[in-house]
Amino acid sequence: MNKAAIKAVTQFSDHYRLGSPFVLDNEKFYRIWRDSKLENYPDRVEDLIVEINDPKKLSPAEFGAIQSRLAKANMAVYAGNTGNNPDKTIVAKLGEQFGLTELDDNMGADDGVTSLKVVSGQWRGDYIPYTDKPIHWHTDGYYNSPEHQICALSLHCVSPAAKGGGNALLDHEIAYIHLRDKNLDYIRALMVSDVMTIPANVINKKVVRPVSTGPVFSVLADGNLHMRYTARTRSIQWKHDAVTQAAVTALEKFLASSSPYIYRTILQPGQGLVSNNVLHDRSGFEDSGDIKRLLYRLRYYQRMDKNSVVSR
Prior knowledge:
single chain, alpha+beta, Double-stranded beta-helix, four-stranded antiparallel β-sheet, 20 strands, about 25% strand
């Protein structure tokens, strides 16, 4: 067992003693956490919206309103006054106020900020985020190495598409509850360290990203739940045992359902999503004339809230 694995086991054991709801033998603590989680859970996406003035300098009330939504639903939607301002620092400065500094400078990012728009005639055009095609349910960075998991995700809208381009959003803790309540073995299977493998990304015979293998659900060092998932059907390898296959099918059915826990929204100019990398998708869209979809995406190795789950 490597040092990282030993550290993870040790930290997980610490949270076991503290009463982590994510230890599968801790049914008592799970039920306490579950009931608290679901009590007064937001009924609609409008409940997640926080009106703010200057995203770069939140007032204490604005900060507290966003933080309270993050603590409950792992996400919040802010509505600022920046409109179509293309300044990339708007959402970066907002994130810094929540302690987010460790940006994932992925292949398509510019200093950690990725411009999500239709791109043709470049390498980006080979990747769905830079097209107008729909993107299936996923958490960001599901192909990242275990040492560089994406724990927070921010989106900022400069310009929506002429038609379409909406997002569905689901708190990953709600997905966990749904599956655990159906069958504890589903969670057990999805926490195995080799349950989901993303093959290497090879371009012109050069490996630009190695094979990535890991669990769907895991527990972070601070005791919070982390999820790594994609609904893609190509370039993915799931374990072939019956329980894993049943768990994946159950999750797919939940994501395709009309559950009230699944929010749907189209971000407007000056609006943005801040989250602890919740599950999300994107519908296909159409640009028209000067109306072209442009969103900024920032991925972080840190969570947006600093509270461990055991202290909530």
